[in-house]
Fold each of these.
Amino acid sequence: MKTLKINSKQLFIGLMMIGSTGAFFAQTSPKTDSVKVVASTTQAQTNPVIEGLKKQVEANPKDAESLAKLATAYQDATDWQNAVATWKKISVLLPDWAPSYYSQAYSYQSAKDDINAKLAYEKYIATVKPEEIEASKKNLAYAYYYIAFNEQKDNPTKAKEFIAKSIQYDPTNQEAVKLSQALNS
């Protein structure tokens, strides 16, 4: 049995360059998210990039790099259902690779599935390794913010803890600062 070896740092950097799965695009406010959701079954045209990547994945289902490119292509096409499914496959292959959980959360959030987005952001937070924290601060800040935003009514104590963590990682996020002020007033 072959062992899957992948440099997750290089893969993540490569993904940031080839697609829109990066933190820049995921830094949307849960209350103002205006992403257009298009179900994969309603797409009239086929996407040649997706079709080519699907063939690569069919030829080697354990090729994490091709899977990540495919997941990113699904995100670019706003095909959230297939994006989530593909990111989940990556999480099975690379269970310790935190960016796959962040990307799952982003896809769930874009599909307006707040419950699963929250769970995926929680998994992302739990999976970030100590040596990756510095490079992941913006994404961690957003993940904590998203959870705090969603917990503010049902669990204000948890929301306060999470918003404090969000601000700790990114004190410049004005939405987080506003939420913190609202929670602590």
Amino acid sequence: MSQDQQIAAPAAPSGTDGEIRTPLDAAINWCGRGVAWLVFIAMGISVIEVISRYVFDSPTSWVHETVVFMIAILFALGGPVAMAKDKHIRVRIIYDTVSPRIRRWLDLFNSVITLFFAMGMTYAAYVMFWRASHNPLGEWSFERSGTSWNPPFPALTKGIILTALAIMTLQTLLHLFKSIRDVGTAADDSKTSEERED
């Protein structure tokens, strides 16, 4: 065995990366596993379309829009699932080099910033969905694709985006409460340890 092979890989930093933090996160993670099957359904109907078009010379009018709609659902709901697993984007070069105490403060800061962002995006998605689901008189009238099949997928996609962002806002709020609790608990623990040393 060479000297290079004997060198162990550096241990991963101990943090909360990948942790399911709330019951809502656990529920979203569970639902995400079911929604993930949409990719196989989309693949299946795409195969049916290819066979129908090129073998039987009988193309469909519904497969392409349905597949795009299913993939849009997957993309939109990927945000809440990533947040539920704590797998969202993080500046690791900073996060991994600081102490657990600083990480708790960074988690708190991140939750505050994310909450404002998620609230703003949720409002924008609400406005977008309202315009796609109501006519100028305020009556329900779903925006449609304008193709020969003409499904209401544009309006429904915007509704899914709104739902995903609303879920992410709620998740962020719960994560913020947990971060505040973690920072407070860490402060109490440090005070208790200092009292014991005295």
